[in-house]
Amino acid sequence: MADGFDLRDEPWIPVRWANGASSWCGLRELFHRAHEIVDLELPVPPAASGLLRILAAMTARIARDADGVRLDDEDAAEEIAAWLEAREEILAAGRFDPQAVDAYLDEEVPAGRLDLFDPVRPFLQDPRLATECVDAQGSPNPSGVNKLVFGRPTGVNGAVLFGHFTDGDPVAVSVAEAAWHLIAQLYCGPAGQCTPRRITEVRTGSGDAGPLRKAVSYHAWGADLFTSLVLAVPVPDDGSDADVPDECPWETGDLPDPLAPPAELTWPGRLLTGRFRHAVLLVPSTDRTQVTDAYITWSTHEPKPAVRDPYVILDRGKEGQLHVREADGARALWRDVDALLLMDGSHSALRPHSLTSLPPRLRRRLSVRAYGFHQDGKQTDTTWFEATTPPILQWQEEADPRMARHLARCHQAAEDVGTRLEYAARLAWRLATDASAAAAPTVKLDRRKPGPWAEAALGRYWPAAEREFWQMAAPERCDTPPLPPLVKAALTALDDAIGAANRADIRVARARSCARAALHAVLRAAA
After folding, report:
1. 419 backbone dihedrals φ, ψ, rounded to 5°
2. What proportion of the chain, given as a percentage, has pLDDT over 90?
């Protein structure tokens, strides 16, 4: 610990074991005992999402079948059936080979590359920033530890509202926590103004957003971490170019040239770990037990590569263009279930590529883990979240088309009722508060003046709709119409939002009656 922080053996990843105990472990123990681990317990979901990509890239190097075929084997990637057969044999073994784990960590990865404080090539960092991030006088110009840690205020704004941290009196973080936020910054870091990197006159202090900014990631989740990691290795899409080495940042020989075009995104390593837009350098305390400062700046200004991340949903716009489904802290995971179950082409969304070609024998036990970070495209971070579904992947369309389409109908019905509930609540408010509207033959609603009932009603409706959705998620209910229980939930939510005291007023009572009729119309239209 005096000289560095070796991520191979230092405990920095929180996990939960099969016996219910929780502890922290390094990379070596994590891979050696992945079959005994049931969950990751990182309290920072964007860090967990990035870490899973890093672990998936390592898994592709470590996991191999009895013939020594690895999951990153280029020859197997050219024939998808051979690759899937190798993966099935690896899964059947039930654990990683400890010798393969040690061979990768100790021999294939160059010395020092997995040390967070290595003086030459610290893990996922750029040591050049200490001399390139300087002020006009040439003095070091670090970004501050508050800039590193997501959730802390920076600058002069928000210090009292959002936490007792100020740039004038920064609070150091543990090395393990700094490692989490290093990963989160590289995958979800902001766009716009940043600490200047003075190696060019073009955009010296401006950077682009990280590759997962605003995104929500979906991962097949098994009964143990071993299964989850093997399934996290993306199925090869178009094979791999054998002439271009597939190297992760901790495997490459040289630091990337920030002024040159980035290396080609090869499968699977660079696809998962080669799209960073930020460069970071941690500044440790003297005893290497804490991180006291950090440099955070841009890593490249080259155009972003047009590549499909294997863990995101792609929504199709009105003109056919595809865009990543953004994280929304107010949207529950069950509302994405149809996009996770239906095959590409079945509707307007493309399923995450990582959820294709799953092993049929495991489907009944596979859930979906989602990690999301609700952000804007620039600097504002709202909230992050983590959620896990029940074992729904048994109902993917290629395995159970009847159930997949039933759940898609249930979700669409819930969305339709939610839309109508919002309209009904806004209508009720307008009729209750505007006498002229009540007397008019048609009522025009002003979206700028929705009133308080719509938000209150939707806040009550969506949790109730989720309960109804999971009750309908059963094969014996495939022929049950989903609308009646959802409309009932919406009527209850509307009544609760208006309130019993308000309903005693005759004008409110009439407005409520009109709003309830608007909700009942959904049932009549479906009849």
Report:
1. -65, -45
2. 82
